[in-house]
């Protein structure tokens, strides 16, 4: 028997009610985009008690340079999406470049990366010419720079810069700590920045708390969906046994890796995958330099998988190692099936999502990650465990596990799925949904700006971000602003 839920009262109004289930990066971005129009009533529901509480986010993929096998068109899409993201979330980036290196034993070549970088640089220059506000990655001429071995050796005797004023300043700690014999030459510095998941959560929270016609329903688990009155009635449960329902005209599924559960409740089919991943929090206390992010390319799933060194404040460093012993997991990729749109992860991984990690597993995998990086930065072997891992399941729409750009799909006239793989794609999905709502007549056609609802105070964003980090049992250093306050338009 279908359970009866008391209805949540929403005052009569002529504007449509848009329901968004999921307050991850996609859901909150869509909510801000739609709230800006002032032409709809929004209801944002999420079972967590705070926003953007999902898989680890640490990198703004402004060109897809972490993925050398990614098609050029996807890289160009990520570039444009990242520029839009920086404009929409101006206080969420850690503005420091990324250094790309190819290990000596890797079968790849640095030379193969350069043509794509030139294409990305040209496209960035075109975007800046079209709109100067797009110059959020510094000067297009300095989008990337090549460093030969003799260039790096010349930097080894220089002192750390108190505040980086030039591209070379970022390379000084690299020059002093990198094992120069372990990598191919040249190295590449590129303007791909860090992205703070905690400041992104804080930014969205502050904006949506101010937004008119937006009802935030956190700690709310959607348990039932049925079509009713030309729209959808969502039954929900809250802590303490509270139950209710809300009627919406249009429903947006922004549940991230749990998107299949909502499809199942709505009786809809969809092919998708989810992948369990983890990043590891370490602390290298002796380091006070301004570090760039470091990427050492490698073959995914092998012991030589890509190594990623992401610096934060106070000596904290987040690590990825794309091996089955570090970031990836045996049976970590799961697919939907004929009877459910929700992929089901192996039991031990599902337990990690729901119950967390054992201390022994944290120590084992974090130490493996440290050693993975120490192959190239020998001094990093002295780093210590800095906290519990950042982990979660990443959704991948369709059947291509290599997909990295955005996807969005629509069912009928009143159901949309946001299916992003990378945070930088969230705004593109929000735009696509807004345009669909325009086409179908749910919202009046309007010019779409690329800015947030209103400007948040950066100090308020950082303060709330630190609080969120602590509430989630992570070091507040992961929420602090690192790098530069804003891009150096003359090339850092």
How many beta-strand runs?
A: 21
Low-confidence stretches: 1-5, 7-12, 447-452
Number of helices: 11
Instruction: Label the structural class.
Output: alpha+beta
| C-alpha-based Rg, rounded | 23 Å
3D architecture notes:
This protein is α+β, with helices and mostly antiparallel strands. Helix content is 28%, strand content 22%. It has helices at residues 25-37, 72-88, 114-130, 149-155, 167-177, 197-210, 259-266, 347-355, 359-374, 426-439, 458-471, and strands at residues 17-21, 41-45, 93-94, 98-101, 144-147, 187-190, 194-195, 214-217, 221-228, 231-238, 242-248, 250-253, 272-283, 293-296, 307-311, 316-321, 333-335, 384-385, 390-397, 407-411, 415-419. The strands form four sheets. Strands 4, 5, 6, 13, 14, 15, 16, 17, 18 and 19 form a ten-stranded mixed β-sheet that branches. Strands 8-2-1-12-21-20 form a six-stranded mixed β-sheet, with helices on both faces. Residues 1-5, 7-12 and 447-452 have low confidence and may be disordered.
List strands and helices in order, with pairings.
Blueprint: E1 17-21, H1 25-37, E2 41-45, H2 72-88, E3 93-94, E4 98-101, H3 114-130, E5 144-147, H4 149-155, H5 167-177, E6 187-190, E7 194-195, H6 197-210, E8 214-217, E9 221-228, E10 231-238, E11 242-248, E12 250-253, H7 259-266, E13 272-283, E14 293-296, E15 307-311, E16 316-321, E17 333-335, H8 347-355, H9 359-374, E18 384-385, E19 390-397, E20 407-411, E21 415-419, H10 426-439, H11 458-471
Parallel strand pairs: 1-2, 1-12, 2-8, 4-14, 12-21
Antiparallel strand pairs: 3-7, 4-6, 5-6, 9-10, 10-11, 13-16, 13-17, 13-18, 13-19, 14-15, 15-16, 20-21
Helix pairs in contact: 1-6, 1-10, 2-3, 4-5, 6-11
